[in-house]
Amino acid sequence: MDFSTPKRRSLIEPIIPMINVVFILLIFFLMTAQIRPADPWPIAPPKTDANTPADAAQRLTVSATGEMSFADQTGDAVWAELAQWGAAEPGTLLVRADAAYPAAELAALLARLSGLGIQSISLATVRQ
Amino acid sequence: MFAFAPPRARRRPGLTPMIDVVFLLLVFFMLGSQFGREGAVSLSGGSAGAEYSGPPRLITIYPDQITLNGVESDLAILPEALAPLTQAPDDPIILRARAGTDLQRLTQIVEALTAAGFDRLVLVE
Fold this sequence. Notes:
The complex is a heterodimer.
Chain A: H1 16-32, E1 47-48, E2 58-62, E3 68-70, E4 73-74, H2 77-87, E5 93-97, H3 103-115, E6 121-127
Chain B: H1 16-32, E1 39-43, E2 58-61, E3 66-68, E4 71-73, H2 78-82, E5 93-97, H3 103-115, E6 121-124
Parallel strand pairs in B: 2-5, 5-6
Antiparallel strand pairs in B: 2-3, 3-4
């Protein structure tokens, strides 16, 4: 008979499976994350049912009161920056405007953007 | 003979610092990523430089009603009312927003028209 003291089982749980899971999560978030600067103001884009994914070269952010932000610029510097971008064969401009922004002011804004050579414009929405 | 010390057991590098870093990265990406992916509707401005042909197609949007060429209409019947006025789905349709109309309402109408197949919507002042 064997009366020797039983070998102590190691108390530490195996750590390798946990590291595997954490790495998988990390890779998932790395792949899906979109890193871009936060909005200078809180923006609630209009809600829609359908959702065509936004695919835009640049973003113009417009708050409910009409303040604009484009490429780290705010205020009047936005128009100079937009003119420069519009002159250099631009892609689609995504206008991220607040749902409470007056539609008539958006019409004026779009007309001014067309004048700068920015023809392809889409309006950002979020799914309901 | 030299008496060498017995070979020391090789030390395993500690895993804990690596796990710490990986967890920090994980938390960063979890908090930093955005899940509600943005959508977009296409819209063009008044001077987009496309020629207009055919009968007038002017939709005026008020906060509480919609008119098509001045005749009161409704969002549900708007696509049918527009069908006889267009030859092709890419004929431009003019949208005009009146005071008090916000972007949420405009987007609803743009979405309904886009769903009905009209994809050249022009917003004018």
